[in-house]
Write a structure and sequence with these properties.
elongated, 170 residues, 7 helices, mainly alpha
Length: 170
């Protein structure tokens, strides 16, 4: 996980999130593109790097949401660390496993945000349960698409590199 890749990934996710909110005001109830990016980068299994990625992604989400700073920062840091630890213990390559990791990460984030809101904020307005389920499922599906696209791109780049090496040997 390179800092440039993470920065560009967060920039793209933030731009898409802002564009989605402008097109459809309920967009953040269904989609959390920054969380998808956080979990995607945390899946490489490096727990300490995942802490930084989660904190950065969460603070960016807080800044975009306009709410109190730190709620998403804390929740996303914990989610990223958990995703990295899961990646260390399990090899999650099947589509069903990838969807499960992203879906459970979204559920964990929403539970943490609800708990932090109840504990720290004077008045909390939680989204309705169907919106929470929809957000968890869309996070899982978007995570699957991103993971599949990342693997495909990595395979293409590796093949291209190998062809260049073979051409140099000739």
């Amino acid at each position: 996980m390179k800092a440039v890749d993470v920065g560009l990934g967060f920039l793209l996710a933030a731009l898409l999130q802002v564009g989605g909110v402008r097109a459809w005001p309920e967009f953040p109830l269904v989609f959390d593109l920054l969380l998808v990016a956080v979990v995607y980068f945390a899946r490489d299994g490096r727990a300490v790097a995942a802490l930084g990625v989660g904190c950065a992604g969460g603070l960016l989400a807080d800044a975009l949401a306009g709410g109190p700073l730190g709620l998403h920062g804390f929740a996303d840091t914990l989610v990223a660390y958990t995703a990295a630890r899961v990646a260390q213990q399990l090899v999650v390559e099947r589509a069903s496993g990838v969807v499960l990791v992203f879906t459970l990460a979204s559920a964990l984030q929403q539970a943490l945000l609800a708990a932090l809101g109840v504990l720290l904020l004077p008045a909390v307005q939680l989204p309705a349960a169907p919106w929470m389920v929809a957000r968890a499922l869309t996070t899982g599906l978007l995570g699957l698409l991103l993971a599949a696209g990342g693997r495909s791109l990595a395979a293409r780049l590796a093949g291209r590199r190998e062809r260049r090496r073979a051409a140099r040997r000739r």
